[in-house]
Structures
1.
Amino acid sequence: MQELLKSIQIRVNDKIYLKDPESSELGKNIVRRSIDMIHSMGLEAFTFKKLAIELSTTESTIYRYFENKHKLLIYLISWYWGWLEYEMVLNSINIADPVEKLGNTIETICHPLKNNIEHDHINLQPLHKIIIEESNKAFLTKEVDIENEDGLFSNYKRINDRLIKNIKEINPHYPYANTLASIIIDSSNHQRFLANHFPRLTDIDKTGSDLGSFLVEMVLKTIKTDR
């Protein structure tokens, strides 16, 4: 199973990039090294010029793959959500009880690396930290509506759709399933961000060890039924 997951091809909307980075070793290196650099220095300090120096290539070469670092960030985030969807499906494929499935799904979202899954050219540890620290910057922009219409956030929305379906399996009459699903996803990252930078604003520690349990309890009490 480990080898299978390492080689899975994650689908990313082709409007995000100019040239598919999966199509060449240089493209894969651009993705691999950009993850390390954005993780270490942050998106604001990261530039294609610095990336080109690290790769011993030119800025123009990198621009053949991505229009700008904003699109590169969207690519990384979209790839992550696509990968996480595989994890969610595999971790719940044999679970029939919807409550157990919901708990398993939320735990997977909160602790996506607990199975120590690796990927051939993407380091998931720093990528997950980028999701926690930088992912909101991908859509808190003036261009978000246009990018959304182009389907750039489809992988993210599919995660939300799976949670909605799971919530409705437990309580089909709950009227705020869309809102609750997006709160779960946002909290899985935002509470970890708070733990890292504003610890007085959360009861979750930096490891996020209790985050899944908290969210499961919150959701089940929110959508409570007679079962």
2.
Amino acid sequence: MTYNIICKKVELAESSKEKLLSKVRKLGKFFDDDTECRILVSMQRDEMGVEITFPYKGFIIRAESQNSDLITAADDCLTSIDRQIRKNKTKLAKRLRDDSLVHYDLDFGNSASVSEEDEFKIIKIKRIPRKPMMVEEAILQMNMLGHDFFIFNHPDTMAVNVVYRRKDGNYSLIELDQ
């Protein structure tokens, strides 16, 4: 497994990087040898922010945490990722079609900052590859990313659909007409 540590607005000593990597390596048992782990460390309002991202069988597993201590923030992230993997392991095996687990990666390098002079200000653009998936897959992916909505293509109709979490905890699906 390869590990990519990215530091924003903070410099980490080699000893801190090694402590962080030793903790993250414990989750290596869940992933293949060719998996790349992305660790983003940043300083946010006098607190260390840690975001850890793993690709897992076509899905992205991600957790983030903030704490005054780097190792405590990393522990919180790793606990969350461990819980996500264990919780969704059977769902991935039971619900998804075999061909739906085609590996894809989000392109982290395509994020860009754009400023406009209007009252609507776009601060980030994210590009993700299109991947046809069933509604259950989209909900699972949305939950693993920690988002409230997810846009995907339905494999039968290739229509763009949106699934989102309602305030009552249930899910809704929006199907766009073509």
